[in-house]
Amino acid sequence: MKLWMIRATTAVLLWTCLVQLTALGDTWGPMVLKGWPVHDPVSATALDVKLLPVVPARVVPPKRVYKNNGYLLISCNGGLNQMRSAICDMVAIARYLNVTLIVPELDKTSFWADPSEFEDIFDVDHFITSLRDEVRILKQLPIRLKKKVELGILHTMPPISWSDISYYHNQILPLIQRYKVLHLNRTDARLANSGQPIDLQKLRCRVNFSALRFTSQIEELGRRAVNLLRKNGPFLVLHLRYEMDMLAFSGCTQGCDDDEVEELTRMRYAYPWWKEKIINSDLKRKDGLCPLTPEETALALRALDIDSNIQIYIAAGEIYGGERRMANLASAYPKLVRKETLLGPDDLKFFQNHSSQMAALDYLVSLESDIFVPTYDGNMAKVVEGHRRYLGFKKTILLDRKLLVELIDKYTSNSLSWDEFSSTVKEAHANRMGNPTKRLVIPDRPKEEDYFYANPEECLQPSDNEPVHII
């Protein structure tokens, strides 16, 4: 008994001593507990910073509690940025219908045939947790419902394009409540650009600018590419949309030889969902509906007084016609780089044959560039434009293609001098630099109005003295 009492007393005394030593203060206590610094008599605080860098705790928003009306499956269509904006729309729709969204399925059957899953491109866990205060997102259906879907017991439909949220409340929600699971098989451009509740518009932005984060591998490679470019000074990203698929789809063959025209035509007829078959390339070009050629792009950049020594990062796939078509642009701007020349083969080997992952890398570099210049107003051009507005109205030169081809034809036919050509181009683009402006709204023609993701003004800092632009 005495032995146990001695042991207990000793333990209490030792514990008391330890507590007293710890309480002596910020200097002596940590030295006793962490080890006395022999060679480097720095303060305990400095030692903490060196050895244990503070990592901010990840703040997870609280779960939203609501009555679940059912489950929404979506299959995205198109390229990366077409799918990206569709995902933002579907998250907003799921939230306003009080339904559970299943992680979106990405398009694997389009021209690019990219087999990437959602989690191969986006940080799926961040996507789910960052939105949990708005909408419940699951990686897959509950087992009972999943088995029904696998047996083909599923209602599938495409929603009507450019519909407002009332359409989803009145037409789509009853179907979800009836079938418990609804599959929307085409999701691009299904939610109206304007006239939606402000909270819905802001949620679309939150998904786009915060929740849809690329995987750590893509983000890291994007940072490496930007750092390599920054070492050599400012850089311009040129989204040169002069690629085979775009030329075949649009029917634009300016500068192509007879064999190339025939090849592009065959490709257009090979895809049944490319509705336009017989296309007059000259008329489309004069209407400003064709992507600028590399030669036209070189003239436009020179006319805008873009420094010939600036680095130009080509954000695009393989340029149709190769080096022959790039010769004029390379002569005017010799510091042309691509991801394939900027980064090594080992960096890109995991991205080969995955066009959406390659496009994600171009997207990150485009956001960080000093100037962004798209030569066609496709999905990437629009979404990057809007994201750069969100980041502080970073300089984005929106080329007026219809005016440019008219001026270029006059200049190349010697009916316009270089000084006249250049001054007219600069004057025409003075207010086309991504500066604050109202989104164009055309209530009866939504396809012709400004795209929400190109100018998400509800989420941007308000601009002064900008009139509402409604037709």
From TrEMBL:
It comes from the Eukaryota. This is O-fucosyltransferase family protein. GO terms for biological process: fucose metabolic process. Keywords: Carbohydrate metabolism, Fucose metabolism, Glycoprotein, Glycosyltransferase, Membrane, Signal, Signal-anchor, Transferase, Transmembrane, Transmembrane helix. Residues 1-25 form the signal peptide. InterPro entries: FucosylTrfase_pln, GDP-Fuc_O-FucTrfase. It is a single-pass type II membrane protein. Belongs to the glycosyltransferase GT106 family. GO terms for molecular function: glycosyltransferase activity. It is found in: Membrane. Its main location: membrane.
